[in-house]
Design goal:
alpha+beta; Rossmann fold; 8-stranded mixed sheet; HPr kinase/phosphorylase; P-loop_NTPase
Length: 304
């Protein structure tokens, strides 16, 4: 595992000071704030008894989470601290996937964001989130947007807040996880991965476009499903809310302290303020440009 001299980065509008090298994140401006919003440290963690070999998540408190993976045990506290206890011999890239993914996403939840398990892009200045079961092609759809000239805001997560009743998305970090096959097939505008290991099916590729500094209004959430043709289907009010509930990233944290009810309320506010629809399409990579055109037309309110 590679541990760097402490470096300061930026992600989701936060400054992150890390003892672990995180090349997927942008380096912070040296003239910026001296006190970081978030610290990432390496240390030995005393695991609570509730965190057994059969569990991957334990809430020691509403703002104190333990995450357990083969690569590391992680403690996320108060929306400001991530402590990492790596397994012996874990490759650096594997550890980065844990920190930049689950650890940072749970921290965003602690900071009050509604964290949606989604790949998020910007189409004509509006944020669009793609949700769905694992393997439904969230990242592939976002990559297709990228190849069509749109921007990826965040990979595998949407950090949403309500700004005066309008849902807005905070862009994450300028990297996206892609398989070698996807890169060779589509040739998206990304940089080669760095410091990779053979055990990972997908690697972080840095994006070539800048991330917006300000939150982007959320224009729509699309629930990806298989279908014989490309079609967008409206959902009932209850279906819209449950689509958001089911795809809440930190859903494992909601079982205590009334957070589940609060989460449903937030999902209701978001569903009432933005479009949440079902997007059916065939699993045909050649038709991905048509899928993106259909989404763009739907966002623009055009009749198809």
């Amino acid at each position: 595992m590679a541990v760097a001299t402490t470096e300061t980065y930026e992600a989701f509008g936060l400054t992150v000071r890390s003892e672990i090298d995180l090349p997927e994140l942008s380096t912070a401006d040296p003239g910026g704030p001296t006190d970081p919003d978030v610290t990432v440290t390496v240390r030995t963690l005393t695991r609570p008894p509730a965190l057994t070999s059969e569990t991957s998540f334990h809430a020691a408190g509403q703002r104190d989470y333990y995450l357990q993976y083969d690569a590391a045990t992680v403690r996320v506290r108060d929306g400001t601290r991530i402590a990492v206890d790596p397994a012996r011999g874990v490759p650096h890239e594997v550890l980065r996937h844990v920190i930049v993914g689950p650890a940072l996403n749970h921290l965003l939840h602690q900071r009050g964001y509604f964290v949606l398990h989604a790949s998020t892009v910007s189409i004509d200045g509006a944020a669009v989130a793609f949700v769905g079961e694992s393997g439904q092609g969230k990242t592939t759809t976002a990559m297709a947007c990228l190849t069509e000239g749109h921007h990826v805001l965040s990979d595998d997560v949407a950090a949403i807040t309500l700004d005066g009743g309008t849902p807005v998305v905070r862009s994450g970090y300028p990297a996206v996880k892609l398989s070698t096959e996807a890169v060779e097939t589509f040739d998206p505008p990304v940089e080669p991965p760095v410091r990779t290991c053979d055990g990972r099916p997908r690697h972080f590729h840095r994006l070539r476009h800048d991330q917006p500094a300000s939150p982007v209004p959320l224009a729509g959430v699309y629930l990806l499903e298989d279908g014989p043709e490309i079609e967008v289907e409206s959902l009932s009010g209850g279906e819209r809310i449950m689509s958001l509930v089911d795809n809440t990233y930190a859903i494992g944290t909601l079982g205590s302290d009334g957070q589940a009810a609060t989460n449903v309320g937030v999902c209701g506010e978001i569903a009432g303020a933005t479009s949440v629809k079902r997007l059916r399409r065939p699993r045909d990579l050649d038709r991905l440009p048509e899928v993106i055109d259909r989404v763009r037309a739907d966002i623009a309110g055009e009749r198809c």
